[in-house]
Each structure stands twice: as structure tokens, then as C-alpha cells.
Amino acid sequence: MNPIFAFVFPFGEGRGEFRCKRNFVDEEAACEWAASMLDRSEVCYLAECESADYVFEPACESHTAVSWSADGQTWQMLEVIDDFDEAMEIYPIG
Questions:
Q1: How far is CA 3 from the centre of its chain?
Q2: Per-residue pLDDT tens digits for 9-33
Q3: Is the pTM of this model over 0.85?
Q4: Which helix (H) or strand (E) holds 35?
Q5: Are 89 and 44 spatial neighbours (Cβ–Cβ below 8 Å)?
């Protein structure tokens, strides 16, 4: 069976979020699907999870983010590192 990925699509500050889980072959396929759901200014947070019961909390753990590039032509994967002492840092993967 393919790995399970948990997704969080925030609607903007104070406006809630949409959460879902889906199976994908790998992280790149999961990111490509997430990017297809985004408008150019939005972001999605995702993480591979052990089971469908797992609750993914982006504010509490390192994970991957997906957004569109500045030119809006391609999507990009970003690694989000949370060291719990400072604000989360976002780094391009690759």
C-alpha cells in the first residue's frame, strides 16, 4: 500500500483550514496534487504519517510545504523546520 500523507490547507489568518489525508506513491506526487489545489498565493503543509489516525499539527513538527514559485509557472517544495525555540524556518528543497 502507498504511504499516507496528511495535508493542511490554511484559508488565511483566523479563517480556518481544510485537512485531509490521501495515499500517494511518494512525497513528490503528494506535493504535485497539493499544488494543483492551490491558488498562486496559497500554501499547503503536508507530512507522511504512520496511519490514518495520526493527527498532523504543522505548528508542532517539521514538515514539507508546497507553494507556487514567484513567477507562478511551477510549484515548489519547501522544508519547514521547527526548532521549538524560534519561529519556523522555511527552506527550498534541492
A1: 15
A2: 998 778 889 999 999 999 999 999 9
A3: no
A4: helix 27-36
A5: no
